[in-house]
Design brief:
single chain; 102 residues; GMP Synthetase, Chain A, domain 3; 5 strands; 22% strand
Amino acid sequence: MSNDMKESMMGALENVVDPELGVDIVNLGLVYDAELDEEGKAIITMTLTSMGCPMGPQIVANIKQELMELPEVKDVDVNIVWNPPWSRDNMSRYAKMALGVR
């Protein structure tokens, strides 16, 4: 998979906002990896801010919706992992500023 494709996928994922925090999942550091296999299946490895996050299914649905808009993507598989656990350190400078985190 080309770096351009990965950038396109990450760009699409920036449209997916965590409803609780109001910041996109890329800047929150929730997306650990984005791959596209030969059949056009996007495989997203990500975590959520908390295990009991009620927005998980909504976020996954939004990810699928955004990625399916890319012509190369035929299918989307979202793997939610808890290791490594998410922490505020994963957030981009932008997300920290938006949330007032130092």
